[in-house]
Amino acid sequence: MLSQQKIEALIKRAPLLKKVLLKQPFLWVNPDQRKMDDLSDFSIGKDEMYQAAALWERFAPFIQKAFPETATAKGIIESPLRPIPHMQALLNQDIPIEGQLFLKCDNALPITGSIKARGGFYEVLHHAEELAFQAGLLQPGEDYSVFASERFKTFFSQYHIGVASTGNLGLSIGMMSATLGFAVKVYMSQDAKAWKKELLREKGAQVIQFPGNFSDAIRKARHETQQDPKAYFVDDEDSYHLFMGYTIGAIRLAEQLKKQGISVDAQHPLFVYSPCGVGGSPGGTAFGLKQIFGDHLHSFFVEPTHSPAVLVGLLTGKMNEISVQDIGLDGLTEADGLAVARPSKFATKISKEIISGIYTIDDDRLYTLLAELLDTENLFLEPSATAGLIGPQMLAQTSYAQERGLDLKKATHIAWATGGDLVPEQQRKAFYARGKVLS
Description:
Blueprint: H1 4-13, H2 17-21, E1 27-29, H3 46-66, E2 81-83, H4 85-92, E3 100-105, H5 116-134, H6 150-156, E4 160-165, H7 168-180, E5 183-188, H8 194-202, E6 206-209, H9 214-226, E7 231-234, H10 240-259, E8 270-275, H11 280-293, E9 297-304, H12 309-316, H13 345-354, E10 357-361, H14 363-377, H15 391-396, H16 400-403, E11 412-417, H17 425-438
Parallel strand pairs: 3-11, 4-5, 4-7, 5-6, 8-9, 8-11, 9-10
Antiparallel strand pairs: 1-10, 2-3
Helix pairs in contact: 3-10, 4-14, 5-7, 5-10, 7-8, 10-11, 11-13, 14-17
C-alpha cells in the first residue's frame, strides 16, 4: 500500500479518486477518449480482426466434432442479441431509459457459457495451430477436424499450458486445452468459486489454489510456467491473442445488428456496457466495435466499487503500474471475474483512447439485478454479468449525451452479459434468494 502522502498526491491530481476510496458508485467520463481518425497506431486494425475471425472459421470443423453441442451452428461459437423490454420497463420505474435496451447473451455461449470463450479459446487454438504447422502435422487447406484425432492429442500431450484466473478465463483455457490434449494448469486466486474449480478438474485440468488475490496468482503462474521450455503461458494482464479473440465478438455483433435492422450512425448512437476485470475482454470488444462503427460507438466499462482496477489505472495515469490495494481498497467482491487488482498492460493503453467512460457498481446491486432479470425475462446471469444493465441509467444522470448532441431516444443500448449458463442450480437458487432479500 502507498503511503498516505502519496495517496493524497494522487487525489490532488485526480480528485475523483476520493469517490473511489469511499466506494461510491459513480460514472467517470474519459477525458482522453479520441476520435477514430486521431487514434494512435496500435499496429492492429480491421485486417487483424478478420484474420482472427478466419482462424475461428478454420477450426469450426474441429469444434463441431469435439463439442457436439455446436453441431447446429456448424462449430461456430456465438450468442444471441435480444431485446429485454420487460426488464427495461422495470428499470424505467426508477430512472427512465431513453432508447432500446438489449442483452448480448454471452452467458449462453456454447461450451463455457461466458465471454471468456472468445479470447481463451482463440489463444489456445492459435497456439495449437502454430505447433501443428511447426511439427509438419498440418498442411495449409487441410480439414481442421484432424485436431480431434488421437494423433494430434498425443502430439499436444507433450506440451503444457498455464493460466491464472479468478474463474471464467480459467474455465475456457482449461476446457479447450484439455480437449486438444494439452496438460493444463489453472492457477486460481481466493476469489474463484468452488464449483468452477471442481468443473475444471472434471474436464481434466490441474487446479492450483492460491490463498492470495489474482495478482499473487498470476505472478506465481507466470513464473512457474515460464520455467518449462514446452509450456505456454496465457497472460491475462498482457495478451495480444486474448485481445484479438475478443474483437471477433464485435464482428458478430455488427452482423446481428444488421440482421435485426438496427442502424448505427450519427442519428442512432450505439452504447455498450461491459463488465470489466483486467480489461481484456471489454477492451477487445470496444476496440473491435470502434473499428466498425467509429465515433458512433460509446463504450463504457463497469467495475466493482471494491476493485475498480482499470478505473484506478486510468484516473491516476499509472495504468498497470498501480493496484487497487496500493490506494487502500481491499479488492474483495462477489463478482469473481472482476476481482482483479491491476489492469491489463496491453489492453489498457488501447482502452484509454477508445472507451467513453467507466462506472462502478456495488455487489448488492449485482444481486438485485440478477433477481429482477430472472423475474422479468426468465434469464439467469451470474452476478458479475448483470453489471451492464444499469448503464443507460448511470448515463442518464450525466450530461454526456447532451454535450455531444446525441439523441438518446434513437439510441441502442447493449448490456454485455458475460457469463452464467454453467452455474449449478443450487448456486443459482442461492444467488436469486440473495437478490430477492436485497430488493
